[in-house]
Amino acid sequence: MTQGSLATQSQQPSHGFESSSTIDQKHPKFEMPPLTTAREANSPNSTMATTLQEHLSSAIAKLEPESPQYATEMVDLILTSSRNATASDVHLLPTQDGLQMLWRLDGVLHQVAELPREVAPNIVARLKVLAELLTYQTDVPQEGRIRVESHDAEMRVSTFPTLYGEKAVIRLFVGSGRYRFLDDLQLPDDVATGLRKLLMETGGVILIAGPAGSGKTTTNYACLRELVNEFGNEKSLVSLEDPIEAVVERVAQSQINANCGFDYTTGLRSLMRQDPDVIMVGEIRDKGTAETVFQASLTGHLVITTFHAGSAAGAVSRLSDMGIEPYLLRSGILGIICQRLVRRLCSCSIPDDEKKNRLGLDVDKSWKAVGCEKCGGTGYTGRSVLAELLLPDLQKTGRAILSRSDAAEIEAIAVEAGMETCWKRALEAVESGMTSPVEVRRVLGLR
Ligand SMILES: [Zn+2]
Predict the structure, then answer these.
(1) Which of 310, 309, 312 is nearest to 388 (CA)?
(2) C-alpha 79 to ligand 1 mean position (Å)
(3) Which CATH architecture is the domain 20-173 placed in?
């Protein structure tokens, strides 16, 4: 996730925008009404999402497009309904016919509404006011944030000029409630037990790897909460994040600010002088951060962080490719967890005897998605985490890292030493009917 916006984030909008008189420029803070409905993070219920979608349509129909408050009310409605549906992202996509609204639910986009074309610019403008963007500037990409005080969370808004007007995407961070303890994540037993053991260490790096949208941040926060529970005030717990997605009591959380030179690398160097025991780093994005993380880990600090990689072994070789010395990896890494989220088949799924529908997966049986009222016709309800835990301190794996072995080789050695890969768990999930071959291919790709 790069933050290189072309326009600055917090300049006050001027009054160049033609409809600005209808927009409340003085109070850009968004007041979030209390949540009335919330889906369980680990067992989302699509029925509820469908119902919320119906509520949304009738609520949209009640708003008066001629009213001067229309854009304000519509944006409030968009933000509240998306949050209630626990969408992770909202897309407002201008087309020839109107402004499409899409929600990303359980990792998949769904179109939920289409708003009249005439109101599209006002709606995007209102959103830009809330995010403190330049409303009159519609021809360059912009990025900003909306603080939601009542939920200790924020939303990130980005706009992008397209053929039919500005496209806006809102990333919703669900706030403290969703980020709970390790037990709530339903990680495989061996991974949860292994991770809990690693959290008791006093130095080293715990890497949480996976692609975007695989729940890394949720696991990162769960680890932090676990530490707070275990050690309370006995340990100094600090974090560097971008953004702070949830507040964790008794952790000194810091938001980095790269525009002022306060980035992960400089932040980490300064933090080391603050006598911390545990440092949570939002994400390793570059070599500088990676190096500083490993240096910190070798001087008696436990560092927990996330890293973009396709597998645990892949994370090792990516770090090595970034230029991190193998000896640093060998002695620094305590463990690497890599995770993926797959959608769970709804109870309406049926056994599928057609071998070609197994999409080349090495399984003896499989089920396929059907769709019913309960799952809103999608065939799936909620998601489950597939995870693998690589522990390089097992002798052979450590040696493989030192000798710069490639990912496949490191993985083979780790498997020999007992690691269950995400792929193996995915095949088991297909055979047990938890998920489908199509979903496994969608999430894990080809191999
Ligand atoms: Zn169903």
Answers:
(1) 312
(2) 27
(3) 2-Layer Sandwich (3.30)
